[in-house]
Amino acid sequence: MKTTVNISRVIVGVLFIFSGLVKANDPYGLSYKMQEFFEVWNFHLLDNYTLAFSVLMNAFEIIAGFAILLGWRMRLFSWLLLLLIIFFTFLTGYALLSGKIKTCGCFGDCIPLTAKQSFIKDLVLLALILLIFAYHNKIKPIFKSSASIAFLLMITIGSFGLQWYVMQYLPIKDCLPFKVGNDLVEQMKVPTNAVMPVTETVFTYEKGGKKFTFTNNFPADLDTYTFIGREDKVIKEGKNYEPPIKDFKLNTLSGVDSTFAVLQQTGSYYLFFIKDFDGLSAKDDWYESFVKIFRKAQSDKIPIYVVTAQGDLAEKILNQENDKLGVTIFTCDGTEIKTAARTIPCLFKMKGATVEKKWGKASLAKVY
Question: Model-level pTM?
Fold first, then answer.
């Protein structure tokens, strides 16, 4: 039994470390996934805290994974991991049974799992953690307590430090459809290996106090039935039938869709993403960096466009007040901006529809 427990400990520890590191590479990704759950549950008051929750959860997964591998404070960490996996299993089970959330973000955007795959994974982990919980007293620490504490302290600093870095400079590993090298027009197309879902429309009628369902086998006396409703049921699940980029549209302030007019340019240009302008002003660091980039781009005759979800505020701050730059502003869906720009703000250098380079907010001062 001791060998079985130790094997379980290694599997659980490695998986939690891996899961935490993958998500720590992009804390905003887990934050947005939490907001998706909160939206379904109408917990909108928690939206402002999801980034903090994300950072803490990612760090805890990494720290707990190493603690389990070291065999340090097994009673405490077996309890914590058991509570955490019960919570995760509830989330993935809810996503699977409700059908309202397609992916759970267990391994971030780099390793997308379906709701079913995530639920099965958590069931396996639940079984392994229950075994560790039941026999935690058989697990002996590898090092002395002082050495383990020192090591875990370094892991803690590293876990939070990594997340601070990527929130300033962009993820180290970019797994999103807007990554460097991708052609955004191609990413808006349905993949060539797409398998469309097979659906069936079920009609519900009532007659004589009884309910009847029909697909295409309607009775001859259908006019004597009372129509109740219809439902589209998926008979066979599809695969890869949605384009990686679905709602990326660049609209002028007057509402004209200019997406392909911009993306089909042959030369270089910049896209400056800044989702919200609420609370921003010309006194912020980003503004000084942007003005410098804008002036230099103008002198180099390279177009630069601002992409935001708040066009009116952007127009006011950039073009009507302060330096009155006269920059072209496009509005875009806020969710797409959050996917494209993992720091606030974020700069893309484009060549046609291809992303050539990206800078996070901490790198803006170094663009020129």
Answer: 0.84
